[in-house]
């Protein structure tokens, strides 16, 4: 049994069969149903060690509780690495900036890496705080583990789109994977137009999200437009389709709007990973079999930079 309903209408998919020969087809069928349906699903037996998650979250929490001026020493640079203060992100169409703050990492590349030498944007080393030395090893361990889960999942996604299981692998040689620990302040009950994260679709290919037990993530139901909760289910990650996979698949898979409202009365933490391909990865619906492409070809990097320019205040300065 790979496919069951959770305690809401979002499916829960067990990834165990991905590790045995012949197990992928059933998982791929469940993924196809989820990605052509709600655009969101949970995965269990995802292979990311609970201790790795807990260690990363504890280190990130220690960082977020530092004074603002200390955190500002590692404020996000032009390659998006470091601390993004509350108020620095505005989702498209939102009235107010998001209430969240977050700490963002990517593939840690030295100055002499070919992609850095070639001047690719968003490439280079991570930007770690001296004040929390355990943050780097803890988040790097999570980054590696969630990346391995992303790669495994994409093999099943490829099958679910009728492609060769290794279709995505050549486009993930130096992935633009971004992993961010997110910290949400509690919202006042009478705060009716503030959001931890305002309604948005994710920019990239697929997102893998761990959330703590606070709740607050809501997903827009396709048919009704209603906001349905995606509550924390122990031992799971939430996975969703981003705009880039929507575009690549010529809208066979669609990215679904979601938002976070933290009504728990205390801080909420999550860690989101946008598991995206190489900067230069060609994103052309025809490569996935479309004969009537809805979109011209682009590259992953161009697409992500375009969305970053709209969303993040720090990219608008200077
Ligand atoms: O924290 C969450 O539950 C969701 C975060 C999110 O949607 C995002 O960072 O894109
Ligand atoms: Fe999101």
Q: Low-confidence stretches at least 5 residues in length (pLDDT < 50)?
A: none
* CATH class category label: Mainly Beta
What is the percent of helical residues? Answer: 25-40%
CATH superfamily: B-lactam Antibiotic, Isopenicillin N Synthase, Chain
Number of strands: 15
Structural class per helix/strand content? Answer: alpha+beta
Question: From the alpha-carbon coordinates, what is the Rg to the nearest angstrom?
Answer: 19 Å
Largest sheet: 9 strands, mixed
Q: What is the CATH-assigned architecture? A: Sandwich
Shape from CA axes? globular
Ions, cofactors, ligands: which are bound?
Answer: 2-oxoglutaric acid, fe (ii) ion
Tally of discrete structural domains: 1
Q: What is the CA–CA distance across the termini? A: 54 Å
Counting DSSP H or I runs of 4 or more residues, the number of helices is: 7
How would you explain this protein's 3D organization?
With 318 residues, the chain is an alpha+beta fold. The chain has one domain: B-lactam Antibiotic, Isopenicillin N Synthase, Chain (Jelly Rolls). It has seven helices and 15 strands. A nine-stranded mixed sheet has the order 1-2-3-11-8-13-6-5-4. A four-stranded antiparallel sheet has the order 7-12-9-10, with no helix packed on it. The radius of gyration is 19 Å and the shape is globular. The termini are far apart. 2-oxoglutaric acid (AKG) binds next to β8, β12 and β13. 2-oxoglutaric acid binds next to β8, β12 and β13. It is an enzyme of class 1 (oxidoreductase). GO terms for molecular function: 2-oxoglutarate oxygenase/decarboxylase (ethylene-forming) activity; metal ion binding. Pathway: Alkene biosynthesis; ethylene biosynthesis via 2-oxoglutarate. It catalyses: 2-oxoglutarate + O2 + 2 H(+) = ethene + 3 CO2 + H2O; L-arginine + 2-oxoglutarate + O2 = guanidine + L-glutamate 5-semialdehyde + succinate + CO2.
């Amino acid at each position: 049994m790979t496919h069951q309903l959770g305690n809401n209408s979002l499916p829960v998919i067990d990834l165990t069969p991905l590790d045995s020969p012949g197990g992928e087809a059933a998982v791929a069928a469940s993924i196809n149903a989820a990605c052509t349906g709600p655009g969101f699903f949970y995965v269990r037996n995802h292979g990311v060690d609970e201790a790795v998650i807990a260690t990363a979250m504890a280190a990130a929490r220690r960082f977020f509780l530092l004074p603002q001026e200390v955190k500002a020493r590692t404020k996000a640079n032009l390659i998006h690495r470091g601390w993004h203060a509350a108020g620095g992100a505005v989702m498209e169409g939102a009235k107010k900036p998001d209430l969240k703050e977050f700490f963002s990492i990517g593939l840690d590349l030295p100055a002499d890496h070919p992609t850095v030498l070639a001047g690719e944007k968003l490439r280079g080393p991570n930007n770690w705080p001296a004040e929390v030395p355990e943050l780097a090893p803890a988040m790097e361990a999570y980054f590696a583990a969630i990346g391995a889960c992303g790669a495994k999942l994409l093999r099943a996604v490829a099958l679910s789109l009728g492609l060769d299981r290794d279709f995505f692998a050549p486009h993930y040689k130096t992935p633009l994977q971004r992993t961010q620990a997110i910290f949400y302040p509690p919202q006042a009950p009478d705060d009716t137009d503030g959001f931890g994260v305002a309604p948005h679709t994710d920019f990239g290919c697929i997102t893998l999200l761990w959330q703590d037990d606070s709740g607050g993530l809501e997903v827009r139901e396709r048919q009704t437009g209603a906001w349905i909760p995606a509550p924390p289910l122990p031992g799971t990650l939430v996975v969703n389709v981003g705009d880039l996979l929507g575009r690549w698949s010529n809208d066979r898979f669609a990215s679904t709007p979601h938002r976070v409202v933290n009504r728990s009365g205390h801080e909420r933490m999550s860690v989101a990973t946008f598991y995206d391909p190489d900067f230069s990865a060609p994103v052309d619906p025809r490569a996935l079999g479309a004969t009537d492409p809805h979109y011209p070809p682009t590259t992953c990097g161009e697409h992500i930079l375009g969305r970053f320019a709209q969303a993040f205040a720090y990219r608008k300065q200077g």
